[in-house]
Amino acid sequence: PFDKFDFKKNLDLESFSFEGNQIVVESGNSLWRIARKTMGSGIHYTEIYKNNAKRIKNPDLIYPGQVFNIPNFIKKIYHE
Known about the structure:
Layout: H1 4-11, E1 17-19, E2 22-24, H2 31-39, H3 45-51, E3 67-69
Helix pairs in contact: 2-3
């Protein structure tokens, strides 16, 4: 059966190091995980990639010690 505690433990990675609006990549990080932790959803990894295109050659390959700018992100709510 699905154990919510283990799933939450995997989501709450302690390997995030922040310096202002920057993050230092640590072992186990990915752009998706960084976006999920900092911007609320992994799908926003493209925004981190765009803001750091000079530092990231391949968004699937990031390395410990790299420093990325995290864009200011405001969730927009649309009403019909």
